[in-house]
Amino acid sequence: MSSSLILPEIKVPAHPVWPEKSAAEKQAQKQRIKDLLVQQNAVLVAHYYVDGDLQALAEETGGCVADSLEMARYGTTTDASTLIVCGVRFMGETAKILNPEKTVLMPDLAATCSLDEGCPAEQFTDFCDQYPDHTVVVYANTSAAVKARSDWMVTSGIALPIVKHLASEGKKILWAPDKHLGHYVQKITGADMTFWPGSCVVHEEFKSVALQRLRKLHPDAAVLVHPESPDEIIDQADVIGSTTALIKAVAEMPQEEFIVATDDGIFWKMHQVAPQKKLISAPTAGEGATCESCAHCPWMAMNALDNLETLLKTHGNEIEIDENIRADALKPIQRMLDFAAEHNISGKYKKEAP
Fold it and tell me: Which CATH number fits domain 206-288: 3.40.50.10800, 2.20.140.10, 3.30.565.10, 3.10.450.50?
């Protein structure tokens, strides 16, 4: 049934070009932002895929740098009255769903996600209605309205254990929106799953033959793959996992070189935890010439120091969600968070004590 769905065309924007700054100019700007954060009782919540300057600033100011799971959880643990989410819109919405009493802002509300855009709520609701006996499991990369129609929300770091749990109870699963992650989860768990046919523009562009060539040039490199990637990329992986799992692999595996098939924004954290390791981006369509994403999400690239500073001065770009939708969307998110707490599953890399 999913193969007959006609999804909306996704308009992928060009990567924004931000003004270059000297080290002194950048440091002065970061200090201005730090002062504004303190004045406004605000905290930064940044995803591993955004610009390294934002990740560094979040850590320097006591904020959070993590994957979608930990980003969702973090806002509920901080005393800050304002959450500034550096990422894409569904991350800001998730923060607002969990923290309705807090102000949630984003540097650019147009920073969306191809998975989110490719799964419109009305069309998704019609799809779900065709499978009334299925448990609806949606990936975090969806709108609040889509989450409101679901039973569970998952991130890539917790999808496998949750689906294993549901399968053990004999549940049939309707999965959305990422077909590649869904097929990977089904392959590992054996769950009875029906798929929404979406995909991520970044991970969709990694190419199998080019990756094979690159592996021959770097025979000792470990291949790290995010499960949003196509099967032919996953099949070549030494490690398949969430952003947190891939960071852990770079930090703890003995190899000195890594070929990484996910958004290259993750390199900042990888370099931080393993500065001596060499990181190589997996090849994309056009191999740098005609690719749309070129291994970096153009919507994630809409987050920068410049528009973050503007945001703190203007107080615009607030995330607002209808209360009825928010209340319904909270239920699947809370189920995930409760499951994560019960099974001690984290979405942030922490170095193991020696």
Answer: 3.40.50.10800
